[in-house]
Amino acid sequence: MKFIYSILALAGLSAAAKAPKPPKPPGVTYLYTVNITGGDSYPVGNGPYGSRIVVPITGGTFSGPRLNGTVMPVGGEWGTFDADHEGGAFHIDVRQTFKTDDGAYIQVMEGGASQPDGSGHVYLRFDTGSEKYYWINNIVAFGVLHRTPTGPTIDTWMINTPPAPK
Ligand SMILES: *[C@@H]1O[C@H](CO)[C@@H](O)[C@H](O)[C@H]1NC(C)=O
Ligand SMILES: *[C@@H]1O[C@H](CO)[C@@H](O)[C@H](O)[C@H]1NC(C)=O
């Protein structure tokens, strides 16, 4: 009996040793925090994509270690609220234009969804022709959105490739 048990124990150990290790997660680099101010909202209503509400962007500022500047008074949020499902989320759909403190324009698209704690999880896409900020066309970025009395704030990071598996 003792022998059987020790064989089983050994088999268990080697199965654990052979279980595939999860890959290393990517690192993140902080990009900036943006404060956005909005104007009066327009309730488009409950259509095929949910209950849409449109909010124009009137301005804002962003600041971080690699870029600073202002949010241009153009663009807005075209989000939809999923009212037909239990726990339905607000789906974020934002387009805005950044002007950096040194005069470059960067177009920013944000999607994502509200979370049960009231925050929002955001994915972003950037495009610009600026030589200085050209790197921002090629990153994968995400953010965490908080709604404040003065408007939404989004903390934004980009991912870094983890070390290659050995
Ligand atoms: C955003 O607003 C907060 C609170 O008012 C302020 O502390 C922060 O400096 C602002 N950041 C930017 C980038 O405007
Ligand atoms: C942005 O502002 C921060 C603090 O004000 C500064 O440390 C940083 O160098 C600035 N970055 C750029 C790209 O101007």
Question: Can you walk through the features of this model?
Answer:
InterPro entries: UPF0311 (IPR020915). Keywords: Signal. Residues 1-19 form the signal peptide. The protein is mainly β and 166 residues long. The chain has one domain (21-160): Porin. 10% of the residues lie in helices and 55% in strands. It has one helix at residues 2-18, and strands at residues 27-38, 42-47, 50-63, 68-77, 80-81, 90-100, 105-114, 120-127, 141-148, 151-160. Strands 1, 2, 3, 4, 5, 6, 7, 8, 9 and 10 form a ten-stranded antiparallel β-sheet that branches. Residues 63, 65-68, 101 line the site of one 2-acetamido-2-deoxy-beta-D-glucopyranose.
Strand-helix topology:
Elements: H1 2-18, E1 27-38, E2 42-47, E3 50-63, E4 68-77, E5 80-81, E6 90-100, E7 105-114, E8 120-127, E9 141-148, E10 151-160
Antiparallel strand pairs: 1-3, 1-10, 2-3, 3-4, 3-5, 4-6, 5-6, 6-7, 7-8, 8-9, 9-10
Bound molecules: 2-acetamido-2-deoxy-beta-D-glucopyranose (2 copies).
